[in-house]
Structures
1.
Amino acid sequence: MYDCSNSEIQEIDSKLESVMAWAQTRTVEAEQLALDAIRLLSCTADRLEDYKEKGFFKRCWFKLSGKHGEMLRVNQSDLIEIQKYALRYIQLLNERDMLMAQSIITIKNQLNSLLKEEENTRREITRLAEKVGERLNSIEEQIEALKEWREYSDWLDFEIHACDHFPPHFRLLHAVKSFYFKFGDCDIQKLKYLRKAIKEIGLPWKDPIKISSFMDGLIDEIYQNEQIQNEMGSLRFDGVKADFVLDNISVSSYASLYLILDYYKDTLKLAGEKFEEALRSRIRYSNYGIDLEVSMSWRDLAVELLYCMSLTKRLYEQQQRMLEGKIENESAVTHIEAVQIPYYQKSHQKSPEELYVEASQYYTGNGKSQDLNKALILYHQAAEQGHIKAQYKLGEMYYDIKEIDKHYEKAFKWYSKAAEQGHSDAQYKLGRMYHTGEGTKQSYLEAVKWYEKAANQKHIPALKILGDMHGKGEWLEKDRKKMFEFYKQAADLGDEIAQCFVAYCYFCGDGAEQNFTKAEEYLLKCVSGKKMTKEEIIK
């Protein structure tokens, strides 16, 4: 598939020249794009529609192909063409010594993970992996004669004592975290010492391990060790959610870890003894295409996780500066939906709130001629900048609006983003999608989690559905008292159906102590303002 003639290689190189110039000045995005390009090489035509929605595919398409709106019509031949560009981009980075030292091991790991691909792609991938590996070896040979780094020795002495009581999987994470917060972004010399440290703290440093095996072991350790449960949160950066990592870091080990970091507390609370099974399922059946069969040595895994921590922090800080207007976001177009491109130049200078207001005018026809396509574009632009109402509105449009092609996975994506920011309607809708399995794998744990988050904000439908679930024993233990409590909260917030049901519960003594006075009180609330006779009310 990747066999190219010399003339074809020259043509690709000519088109990539501007990208390589960009890569020299935008090192953070260039590293990100290298990982994206490797992930793109694993894509197959049968899942092309799924890939179009992923951040890695959009970044590769916009940056490597130079095309914009055409992504909506991308087909199998387009995929093969852009994969050739992706492979050549990585080759050029390596040939021109533009790969950052700390990224080399991770890129080598990711290339090696592709060797299970079909025979006609294996040759070129193998050749490139070997070249990257050769560069790594040559750099390591240059520093063999360096005297021992005293600062490292002091850190290692401390780390050996700090983590010797931890089981192996968390011990590796503890060492990586400690190394990163001590030394920050690392050059190849420091990475050599980290790889050595994995041996010194008693781990099987040279042994290969699959991502699935590592994460399974980590999940077992979390469940069995309360100290680890308390310390897991220190592995993440403030404000960085799993969605950001999954959309921006195309590395399965780090994506899996961040999913665990995002969900282990809620899963412990909801799943109890089924914690391990539930959390493993959450990772295996995520919508992000994580490859858990990738295998590497323990020491290479440590370096890979360290590198991903560094890249995550740099990308996140850059995004925050961009949103604050401190840097020009010249690559922002790679992070928005393809449908936005034609309108992007006209509106990218507006604030998220201005975009949302204008989108709402197009949506309702109030102040502008109704145009749902323009509304969709502007909601996207506001939502990509974190506007919570715009994110929720996109979920609504993709789920409900008949003039817009229904797309439950897109609805799920935007409901998720708004829900994570605390939007109670989005939390309820996300719970419903997990409940029904629309746009995602059905999960009672996730459904209950998001229903509860919405109910904690006094969301009436969420309160009622939790009441129903307790009343029927659906996914939650059957408990008529809890059923009554949820319905009473909804009733006290003014919901007429809940008021009527609470009156019934008081009247029959179902979930509450029988109380005719209270039954009458809630029944009268329910029918207040309605023209009904006393006999009709009693009936």
2.
Amino acid sequence: MLGFPIQCKKLLDGKIILSTEHLEEFWNYAQSLSQLSPLADTEVGLISVEDSLCGAAAVFLCLFRDWLKNFPDREKWCFDQILNTVAKPPPFMNFEVEGDIRDHKWYHFCAIGAVVAWSENPKEKRWKEAIAYLCTSLHYKTVEILFSQSFKRREMLGGEWLRLQHLVFRWAEKRFFISLVRNYPQGYGETSETFKTKLAGWRSGEITGFASNAIDSTLPPLSSFTFVNDQITALGKKELTERAQKWPRFDLDLVAHAFQWMPDLNDAHNNNERKSWIAFWQNSLDQTIQVLQNAEQDDDVRGVQSKWDQWVFRGVVRLLTNLEPNENPDNFWKPILSLGPAYYYWIQDFFREFFFCNLGKAEIPKNFVQNWKNIFEFCLSSLQWVYDKKRHSHDLQDLWNSMASLPSMISELWIDKPLGILEEFKPFFERWLNHNFHRTKCAISMLEFLARYPELTIAFFVLVLVDEKYLAYDDHTWKKSEFGDAVAAFLEQLFLQRFDEVKSNAPALAAFQRVLKRLADTHNTIALEILAKMS
């Protein structure tokens, strides 16, 4: 029995196959498990008979539905197994956590099987109650599975699919307060027993509301759940820090798990669905930006992105790869970049996702070039991206480098891509370099990038810039390993791959010779070797 739930999950995931010839044997084994005695108290919650029985029911309902319809008594057994387990669940372990990543417990299998039955009878009250119970359960993974299965059957579910989404929004709001009370029970005057009673009442109300259609089949905006200020006294008085009062009064992790099913935009079945997905990501991004802007007042925002922030940014970037120009892609990247360098980690995360999502594909999305041009132009024109005394120069240099796809982890993505795309950006790079190349970190990144791609036509422009902006610098700059090594690697690749072109270009040749000599004066090994070969 110990391995049977895992076997059921592998069947449902398509990792192993159960042939129709062995269905009878599988059925008989599941029935034999139903005769087992209850487990000892010390084992309760860790593994239960219900894990196996609900696993078997999910396998039959999900994978062998037509076969099961030929046996009404067996079909009823599968239905009853799920409904009875949800109505009277086995005890949980004392140390259950909402982030448990296991996916082969009875509640996971009930989420799979219940959706099959619900999609066949979307208005049937008993199945709606079971679905609502699972949606309001403790574990995020259960909700994730429930929604991913419902998404696959959304055509059959019709408006109930939207009603389920509304339900999880409502429950996410209540889960925030549940967490708040658990963390600050004295501040709300709650005892363990009174809180359990209140929680049970909330959950019962949501289940009843969903089953009776009292909850609308429309999705409210996240902004209606944004701040806790007006709700702080809902359960009692508790003084929170100023920052805590600006947290979203919403369990964002629950929403992220519930909407983990969200596919590429082009997978939408119709234009209305496409618009609803765009609206969801716009809503999520707007809420995220609003919270970020309200959470800190300092010039530099401390900390790193939350899981929700990362999830939203990944979703937004994936959305951008499929948005048409008339769908306003600027609305998704501009609010992020407008945060400015104070939000260093958030913007770095966006650029990393942007390039990996676009350049990491076998075929670059058709709108990548235009999106990148618009981003480049915005950064070149925005006051938020101008150096000033209030901001750390090093951070802004890093952000500029990332925007230009220069860091090594990003630049290596260009290896098997047409460099003609980069040639389109030559005017943008020239404008940026004219204002940033004197900053050493920017210079080093550009030189390292061109050492990898010396065939780019902008290489001669950069060579002349090194001559103009760095030749007069003292030995300290030239002997710094990062700068000296970057110049040396750049010159070496020009010498090995393009020296005939260099010799035919008078300004480039003069710059090459002066920079090479300046580098050789610092006893740089590569520079000395090039000089020896030239002589």
